[in-house]
Design goal:
The protein is mainly α and 105 residues long. 69% of the residues lie in helices and 0% in strands. The protein has four helices and no strands.
Length: 105
Amino acid sequence: MEKQKALNILSRVIEGIAIVRCSQVNAMEFVEWHTNTKEALRMIFGEGSSELSELSSIRFAPDFETDEISGSDCQRWFIRGLESAETILSSIKDEIDKYWPDNLV
């Protein structure tokens, strides 16, 4: 994939975080963003890439449900997950910008 195309794709998924930030982990907007983001990383780096694995390891919600976990607790998990995703995606974008040749095909 060409460098500029990869940068454009990553810019769009990073910008999408602002849209899903106001939703919840099971909201359609988030599910669509998360699916599209994973697919974007597959397209750029391949199925078994460390970049895709790193994004896939982010937890956007607790692994369990109990009466002790409130809706606001779940929302904090979600926001922290989005912040982690934004950090990772921004770092990946910076690496592409710095280290990929301008005419990579």
